[in-house]
């Protein structure tokens, strides 16, 4: 999951329904987005002012869902907040850091197509990172294409905040789907073509050693302003960086970061058994209804308005008026998942823009120029 550029700040504030609140913001014109009987204004940039693995659900989410209410979790060390810029490439492929596997847990139900695991890695606080960055993983063994040389690095978006699932700054988490290959003629799995790194990670046991590189990437970093508006669109394991964002926003008690903006997550998966971190996200929706929205697209269970499968682009189209108004007012929009998600999304956004009398190519160019557009696909 290659990453590049940095994000840009935007500012959003929740306002009341009366005119005096509007005047207090100092804006003559604005676009209001309403839900839960609240109105949101996202100001222009530059202005100041499941059914299986229950053990996993209790093991990991006991430090998440059960503590994700109004009483937030204390984190350490707070020195992780001091940097002005994220660290990059502390460890490189020729000199990786040797970390330790803490746990590997399946996080999808029995009816999910394929297996997805939540993997916690102990880096001892020696490979610090920020939300939205990636780690590289070097699986053991030789590169099959270059005998005698190590396997190449695979990049994975980090699925935890800088403090990790243990809130002590010493671990990181990855969300990994096991890559398998089925012969199209026989329909049988071909082990010789399985994903080397994903299978290594999903088969790992606590205590196993793992070589990591990084951290890398800046394109998916959160804006510094805690009142920014974030529209997050993910397919499958692309939800990883957004889990980190949301834990920082709604779970952790960071003295210098108090989220008061709007976070809106769209997650596309095959069915309910494929939903990732669903209990965590539902808890935020329950505890922070004024600041969090959560929409799911279940392609094998739901139909779109045309009777076809429901994908994330269909949900985007459903809420397109709100999304476009938020973008016009400075919201950030993020995309993460398989690269095959983007053509359908781009086609939908272009069609919606044209229906609104806008030129999508010009609008996209402006979003990129304003650093509101963040894409990490693989």
From TrEMBL:
Entry annotated with the keyword NAD: no
Signal sequence region: none
Residues reported to bind NADP(+): 157, 177, 237, 299-300, 309, 337-338, 376
Known catalytic reactions: 2 reduced [2Fe-2S]-[ferredoxin] + NADP(+) + H(+) = 2 oxidized [2Fe-2S]-[ferredoxin] + NADPH
Gene Ontology process terms (BP): photosynthesis
Pathway as given in its UniProt record: Energy metabolism; photosynthesis
Domain FAD-binding FR-type: 94-222
Enzyme class per UniProt: oxidoreductase
Record's GO cellular component terms: chloroplast thylakoid membrane protein complex
Alphabetized GO MF terms: ferredoxin-NADP+ reductase activity
InterPro entries on file: FAD-bd_FR_type, Flavoprot_Pyr_Nucl_cyt_Rdtase, FNR, FNR_nucleotide-bd, FNR_plant_Cyanobacteria, OxRdtase_FAD/NAD-bd, Riboflavin_synthase-like_b-brl
Protein keywords: Chloroplast, Electron transport, FAD, Flavoprotein, NADP, Oxidoreductase, Photosynthesis, Plastid, Transit peptide, Transport
Gene3D superfamilies, alphabetized: Nucleotide-binding domain of ferredoxin-NADP reductase (FNR) module, Translation factors
EC numbers, comma separated: 1.18.1.2
Taxonomic placement: Eukaryota, Viridiplantae, Streptophyta, Embryophyta, Tracheophyta
Protein name: Ferredoxin--NADP reductase, chloroplastic
Pfam families, per database record: NAD_binding_1
Compartment list: Plastid, Chloroplast
Family: Belongs to the ferredoxin--NADP reductase type 1 family.
Co-factor requirement: FAD
This protein's record includes keyword Protease: no
């Amino acid at each position: 999951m290659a990453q590049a550029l940095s994000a840009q700040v935007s500012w959003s504030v929740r306002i009341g329904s009366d005119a005096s609140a509007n005047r207090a913001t100092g804006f003559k014109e604005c676009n209001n987005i309403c839900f839960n009987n609240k109105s949101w204004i996202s100001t222009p940039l530059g202005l100041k002012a499941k059914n299986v693995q229950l053990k996993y659900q209790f093991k990991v989410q006991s430090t998440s869902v059960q503590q994700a209410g109004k009483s937030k979790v204390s984190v350490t060390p707070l020195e992780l907040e001091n940097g002005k810029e994220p660290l990059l490439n502390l460890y490189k492929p020729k000199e990786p850091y040797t970390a330790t596997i803490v746990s590997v847990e399946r996080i999808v139900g029995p009816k999910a197509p394929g297996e997805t695991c939540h993997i916690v890695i102990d880096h001892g606080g020696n490979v610090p990172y920020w939300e939205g960055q990636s780690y590289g993983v070097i699986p053991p063994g030789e590169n099959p294409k270059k005998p005698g040389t190590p396997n190449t690095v695979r990049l994975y978006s980090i699925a935890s905040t800088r403090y990790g699932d243990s809130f002590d700054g010493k671990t990181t988490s990855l969300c990994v789907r096991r890559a398998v290959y089925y012969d199209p003629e026989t329909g049988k799995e071909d082990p010789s073509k399985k994903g080397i790194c994903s299978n290594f990670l999903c088969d790992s046991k606590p205590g196993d050693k793992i070589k990591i590189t990084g951290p890398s990437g800046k394109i998916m970093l959160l804006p510094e302003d805690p009142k920014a508006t974030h529209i997050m669109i993910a397919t499958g394991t692309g939800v990883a960086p957004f889990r980190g964002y949301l834990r920082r926003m709604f779970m952790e008690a960071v003295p210098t970061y108090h989220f008061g903006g709007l976070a809106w997550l769209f997650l596309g998966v095959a069915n309910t058994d494929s939903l990732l971190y669903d209990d965590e996200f539902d808890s935020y929706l329950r505890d922070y209804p004024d600041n969090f929205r959560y929409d799911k697209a279940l392609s094998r269970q739901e139909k779109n308005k045309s009777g076809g499968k429901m994908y994330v682009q269909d949900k985007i189209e459903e809420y397109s008026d709100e999304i476009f108004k938020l973008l016009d007012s400075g919201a950030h929009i993020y995309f993460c998942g398989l690269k095959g998600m983007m053509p359908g999304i781009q086609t939908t956004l272009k069609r919606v823009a044209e229906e609104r009398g806008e030129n999508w190519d010009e609008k996209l160019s402006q979003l990129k120029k304003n650093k509101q557009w963040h894409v990490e696909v693989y």
